[in-house]
Predict the 3D structure of the following.
Amino acid sequence: MAQLRDDCFAFGGELMPLDDALSILAGRVGPVAATETIALRVANGRILARDIAATRDVPPHDNSAVDGYAVYFDDLKADAETRLKVIGRVAAGHPLKHPAKRGEAVRIFTGAPMPVGADGTQKTGPDAVFMEEDCERSGDCVVCPPGLKRGSNRRFAGEDVKKGEVILKRGQRLRAQEIGLAASVGMAELAVYKRLRAAVFSTGDEVCDPSEDAPAGCIFDANRFAVMALLENLGAQVTDLGILADDAKVVTAALKKAANDHDLLVTSGGISAGEEDHVRAAVSALGQIHFWRLAIRPGRPIALGQVGSTAFLGLPGNPVAAMVTFLVIGRPLVLHLAGATDVGSTRFPVIAGFDYKKKKGRREWARVRLQSNGGGRPVAVKYRASGAGILSSMVEADGLVELPEDMDGLKQGTVVDFLPFSGVMG
């Protein structure tokens, strides 16, 4: 977009750097949700409200890592085969019912508890396991080759988790691996934060719901549906409050009402400096705006504020700008409000497969698809169009190349940071 004025001073003020905006966000926003206890089965994607300490060792006992034969290492000959009598059989869930003596071997299977010794503990029992394929069975005996090391193929109690150890911390977002770890120590229920309640509006007389006909000069509302999906991916409970007309009284009344029973209000459009942009003024009248213009592209007009005590996020009207700014500002906001402690996004280096002109002093993102370069770092290929309204570019892209403020241009072959959609859209 061409602009004759220097946009660092557009609308009468300097644009705020993104890092400053994120610092304001982190300093002002904390968990708003109450807590509840839910079954482990339905905890996926929720945010843990209390630390979890292990109530037992995992594994709870020494066990075999392979199918084979449990033996005493000190019974083995250093340079010749050893013949041992097989006195029992141990399967997972079925411990040997008597101690194993020196000079004996026990048939054992993967995951089965190691036999105990003379004092009834595993500490004095067999201490190594031969793999089945390394041994030869001869009647009621097993012939074991030399060369096995003490402790081979034996997994120790507490090797994964020690009893009393904090295994999951408050503020963690629960994924399959965290849920599995909680299950491994016998947690059937977890204390989590309640789902964040988010209300979503679009604004503009030109915006129509996809369920309706679009008159001449109107567009279908893509932003509201995209933003609701992004919020739901983060675990929020979303209320669709439709489209607000370009009317200051309507906008003010709708925001005031929604603030009563939601934790977060999200709008798209209406926060710039035009005569029909009423959202920012309404929020200022009902509460305050903490920032509303950032030195970023796409998405300079983005607002963080509050309506009463309810958080407010005002996204740009262009669909790509709305989605990108949600990913870099909205996502950490939602996670902070929901109780998460880790709100960062993982980036990794890729090679730019394109040249790019950029204004210094502004953080920018280019939509790219990754291609293999035959063994090295992936190559980022830029989408053919870069406008903030080209929503198809988000479908075609794997993520965003992030270009920092101190960069004034990009040359093909430069190593740059890549922000994958897979890491920030869920």
About this structure: Residues 319-338 form the longest helix (20 residues). The helical segments are 18-28, 176-184, 223-233, 248-259, 279-286, 319-338, 392-396, 421-424. The CA atoms of residues 66 and 110 lie 4 Å apart.
